[in-house]
Amino acid sequence: MKRLSMAIMLAFWALGVWAQNGKIEVKFLGSYPDIIDFAWAYATHTEGNEDTELDESTAALQQALERYRTGREQQENFTITVDKKAGYILLESKHDGFISKWEMCYWNMADKKHKLFAVCIEMSENGKRMNPGQFDCLNFYRYDNATRKMTTYDAGVEVDYFNISYGLPRTGKDITVTHWSENGREKWQTTLKWNGNGFGK
Q: Taking 60 as the threshold, does the pLDDT of residue 35 lie above it?
């Protein structure tokens, strides 16, 4: 089971790294997309992907979202929290003390022509950070209302995965940065402030 857990987490991390590239089309009904539409576009964007492990991770994320969309229970060891009003999703996979945590959210940008979508991945083992920085991922994408596509975006965050993790907001608009000690315990927190186009301290 531990070997399977590591394979799943590695695949999740690979998906986060791979999806940094290319344009992602966002399909939706109504006048604007919601957080499920952004997450679904991210999970189903497979153009040019021939990696088997990546396909498995894509399928896992797609299945969790599809189960939510159709009102079915999640698979064993998976939980999903969706807050459409806040524009936030939390997906967790738990196996033998290992936790793979995905957060996704979006912000309305100041020009009212774009939205910023973010994906954050964090791994832990028995409540401690697992090899801090090895599998973490924080990616940003700017969605264009006119083209209905999102592309990678520099949101002004100098991402550092060594003993640092990032928490996307379910309430408010700022990103919480947690700095960890060498033994994996929380040390202190700082905040990245949303400025309408990105973030700064």
A: yes
Residue closest to 40 by CA, chosen among 21, 66, 19 = 66
The DSSP call for residue 72 is P
In the chain, how long is the greatest CA-to-CA distance?
48
**Residue at token pair 């791979």:** 18
- The secondary structure of residue 178, as a DSSP letter, is E
Buried b / exposed e along 79-107 (16+ C-beta atoms within 10 A): ebebeeeebbbbbbbebeebbbbbbbbbb
Which amino acid is present at 113?
K
Which phi and psi angles does 3 have, rounded to 5°? -65, -40
Q: Are 65 and 81 in contact (CB under 8 A)?
A: no
Kindly provide the residue ranges of all beta strands, DSSP E only, lying in the chain, ordered along the sequence.
24-25, 78-83, 88-95, 98-108, 114-125, 128-129, 137-144, 149-152, 164-167, 175-180, 186-194, 199-200
- Which residue's structure tokens are 């309408």? 196
Q: Report the range of poorest mean pLDDT among 17-31, 33-47, 137-151.
A: 17-31
φ, ψ at 134 (rounded to 5°): -75, -40
Look up residue 174 and give its DSSP letter: P
Q: Give CA separation, 153 vs 16, 77, 91, 117, 130, in Å.
A: 14, 33, 23, 9, 27
Percent of the chain with pLDDT over 90: 51
